[in-house]
Amino acid sequence: MNRPKQKRRFGQDLKDRNTTIVWLHVQGFSTADICLLWGIHKETALKAIRVVAPKPKLTAHQKQQISREYKLAWRVNNQERRKANGAAYYQRNKEKQNAKNAAWRAANKELSNAFGRKSTRKILGILNATGESRSGTCPICLREGPLHCDHYHSGSLKGHVRGWICGTCNRGIGSLRDSVENLNRAITYLKGPP
């Protein structure tokens, strides 16, 4: 008894072949190896891989991560361009930017003051300029209140934080130029004539 030949559709064969080619590609076979195994041209194998290979579906988090990495790399590679664009924008919108900055400073007074202290310390060359504010007892005059960061102005420790004292004592030490000799002469003067 002769069985009737089963008709195979050309499209189905092509789909099976392409699926197998993609599977081999995913398993690590090179394009040349796939061409040898199937006896096909390189272009055919590459076309099959492009057609059947599923494009990786990224989650929203992965897309966000790629976008974040791209933006960071762009910022690093285009620093001069960003500065120039920012300066040009500020010149075009000076009043608007100044009003916006004033409104932010008014709404965030403590944070604005902290940024101011930090930038002032950096300008003065104080190391570890954290911009923090402290309050407590001054170790010199023993008064309660806000404390200021005192730092060395000269010598090998220049810029290092010496301690936290009140603003009046900090200005007094600064006026005496951080000199123990000047301080001793001031003490002698305060004790009165001999």
Protein described:
By secondary structure, the protein is mainly alpha-helical. Among the domains are: 11-52; 112-191, His-Me finger endonucleases (His-Me finger endonuclease fold), CATH 3.40.1800. It has nine helices and three strands; from the N terminus they run H-H-H-H-H-H-H-E-E-E-H-H. A three-stranded antiparallel β-sheet has the order 1-2-3, with helices on one face. Helix 1 (10-26) crosses helix 3. Mean pLDDT is 79; it is low at 7-11.
Features:
elongated, mainly alpha, 9% strand, 194 residues, single chain, 3-stranded antiparallel β-sheet, His-Me finger endonuclease fold
Radius of gyration, taken over Cα atoms and rounded to an integer in Å: 37 Å
Our estimate of the beta-strand percent is 5-15%
Global structural class: mainly alpha
Any idea of the CATH class of the domain at 112-191?
Alpha Beta
Count of separate DSSP helical elements = 9
Helix content: 55-70%
